[in-house]
Amino acid sequence: MRIAFLGPVGTYGEQAAQRLAALEQIPEPELVPQMGIRAVVKALADGHCDAAVVPVENSVEGGVTACLDALWEHPELRVARAVVLPIRHALLGSGPMDGISEVLSHPQALAQCSQWLADQVPAALQLPTSSTAEAARMVAGSRFRAAIASRQAAQEHGLEVLAYPINDVPGNCTRFLLLRRGERSLEGPLASLAFSLHNNQPGALLQALGCFAQLALNMSRIESRPSKREMGEYIFFVDLELPLGPEPLHQALRELEPLCEHLAVFGAYPITQLETP
Predict the structure, then answer these.
(1) Are both 194 and 248 inside the same structural domain?
(2) Is residue 41 within a helix (H) or strand (E), and if so which, with residue range?
(3) Which residue range is the domain that position 39 belongs to?
């Protein structure tokens, strides 16, 4: 089985892909790195891969907008499983810390280490890259550049670990989704869905969310994204806990559907909290 992930090798996405493949009991998966989250999803949607692993939410920086948009745009894809991966960033390089003038990493990683960078290398220019491992690849051999990435990336690209851990919040973690093609299931402990409303008027969102509240369905996440059609029009992404099985979800969807212009259920699925590797 071919599984697309945000590459190159050494990313947290690769770690998540390896763990998800093990949980799904996939024998000898072929991990296929892609440059960019949209490219990861496209590899699955176009049939070049059998599954895809994408980050959807970070405990510090919130939702990964490229993933949310891709889920909304590809109704043929479903969420099969999720893992929550602890994130422990390291500063990697080939020279001394006092000589660093540029720090490269994915924008989310730079944001997750912003206070540490301000305290330890305040004069260094922060440069965004497509992934943490790509940053590690780009700084290899440089005496004045450093990367924020995993310790695994240091091994992959021949770098020294200059400091670890450097993330501002010790409990930093990211939820990754395993996406596959096919019919979306409503059986599982956690469901993800999104909807847009017919009218932008007072109480419209409250009425929609009431469909969950009256059935005692707990929302573990709600996030809005612009519809990209006109100012003030939004898509709402919601995660629901399903401790009593799928029937409350079925009922909530029946009540929610008349209120929505568009309604998409990405799937109900198991979620696993991983330990620090």
Answers:
(1) yes
(2) helix 37-45
(3) 2-86+172-181
- CATH (domain of 156): 3.40.190.10
pTM: 0.86
Task: Please give the structure tokens belonging to residue 170.
Answer: 């010790």
Host H or E run for residue 180: strand 173-181
Q: Digits of tens for pLDDT over the chain (277 positions)? A: 999 998 888 888 999 999 999 999 998 999 999 988 889 999 999 999 999 999 999 888 788 888 888 888 898 999 999 999 998 999 999 989 989 999 999 998 999 999 999 999 999 999 999 889 899 999 999 999 999 999 989 998 999 999 999 999 988 899 999 999 988 888 899 999 999 998 777 788 999 999 999 999 999 999 998 877 777 678 999 999 998 888 999 999 999 999 999 999 999 999 999 876 5
Residue pair 248/188 in contact by the 8 Å Cβ criterion:
no
